Amino acid sequence: MQFKKNKKQEGIILMITSFNQLHNFLSFFLEKKLIKKKNKIYLIILSDHIPRYLILEFKQFIEKFASTEVVYLRRKFIKRKKNFFKSFFYYLFFFKKIFQMKKSLITPSISVYGKIQFPILFIIFYFSSSKIFLIEDGIFEYVPYSKNEKIPLLINILKKFLMINKSRIHVLQLAKKKTDYKRLLKLPFLKKDFFFDNREVYKNFIRSNFEKKLLFKPKCILIGENPLPSQFNYVNNLYIKTLIQLMKKYSCSAKQILFFPHPRTELFYRDLFEKSLSKYSNIHPKSTLVAENYYSQDNLEIIVGTTSSALFYAKTVFNKNQVYYLENEFKMKKDYEVEKNYLNVIKSTGIKKFIF
């Protein structure tokens, strides 16, 4: 990444991990004309778990609206065996990149998703006069802390910082009401005016940008999760069983069903899903389209999936009637308390269990 010397420019620092977060950000910033020709968007990538092809898809899509540069700040870039030296060289590398950005940018807007790490915390602190736009991290923001779950120290530090700097903070809200948020975005000290109800703008953005590009007109959508190697066979069999039941119970043909792999599914597992599920449904190809892009279609009647953000938004944002969750017994056995909390949130919206 190269920065121009001695010539500062207006910019936006963007930290996201999903297309849904990107749509939330773009819909608001374009509607409010906060993205201009002279802007440059710096897409900062911190997570090691986002596939490179997905990052390139983020960049290609953002470039339709503004000049974009990807800033890789991932830990896996630092190849050191010992943890101490790995951390030392990572932060040396990280601070160098951020200082370079500071020299090249007029006070930027910062848009950040809800999972906070130290590097994100530092960026927010370092660009001390920037406006900060918080983007919800999907269903995670709606799940309350469990009794035995400790609130991370970084979250407590950040919340104190946000309280002191509350005039700089804005929330791009997809929740029906701000009190629905239970984690980072639970900011009782923030006035209602600083929560921007972005629901309709977000939906209109999706309709106008994707309606003509959709590859299918499904009656049913099955939303896949990102499988761990140890649970692939379990979820694969669960999906086959679900697809067969969709055809029987709801009179759906395979041509009317769309299976949506999780966007971060590795290509190896995506290929395996395609081989095993293609006779029961259409398999959505790797693209910039996500499940939410299909929710405005009138012909879409049934949406089924495990406890994902895509399933949650189908009910709470797009107001779909027939939305059902699949109970993943594999996950329930491994992380009972966590999955129970997620399921309780899913059930509270009126989403019902898919019955075989």
Structure overview:
- The chain is α/β, with parallel strands linked by helices.
- It has 2 domains: 199 residues, Rossmann fold, CATH 3.40.50; 140 residues, Rossmann fold (3-Layer(aba) Sandwich), CATH 3.40.50.
- It contains 11 helices and 13 strands.
- It has a 7-stranded parallel beta sheet with strand order 3-2-1-4-5-6-7. A 6-stranded parallel beta sheet has the order 10-9-8-11-12-13, with helices on both faces.
- Helix 1 packs across helix 6 and helix 7 runs parallel beside helix 8.
- The longest helix has 22 residues.
Order of helices and strands, N to C? EHEHEHEHEHEEHEHEHEEHEHHE
**CATH topology value of the largest domain:** Rossmann fold
Tally of alpha and pi helices:
11
Strand numbers in spatial order across the main sheet: 3-2-1-4-5-6-7
- From the spread of the alpha carbons, the general shape counts as globular
List the helices and strands and how they pair.
Blueprint: E1 11-15, H1 19-31, E2 40-45, H2 52-62, E3 67-72, H3 83-104, E4 109-113, H4 118-126, E5 132-135, H5 153-164, E6 169-173, E7 195-197, H6 199-210, E8 220-223, H7 232-249, E9 257-260, H8 267-277, E10 282-283, E11 302-305, H9 309-316, E12 322-325, H10 329-334, H11 336-348, E13 352-353
Parallel strand pairs: 1-2, 1-4, 2-3, 4-5, 5-6, 6-7, 8-9, 8-11, 9-10, 11-12, 12-13
Helix pairs in contact: 1-6, 7-8
In short:
With 356 residues, the protein is of the alpha/beta class. The chain has 2 domains: 11-209, Rossmann fold (3-Layer(aba) Sandwich); 214-353, Rossmann fold (3-Layer(aba) Sandwich), CATH 3.40.50. It has helices at 19-31, 52-62, 83-104, 118-126, 153-164, 199-210, 232-249, 267-277, 309-316, 329-334, 336-348; strands at residues 11-15, 40-45, 67-72, 109-113, 132-135, 169-173, 195-197, 220-223, 257-260, 282-283, 302-305, 322-325, 352-353.
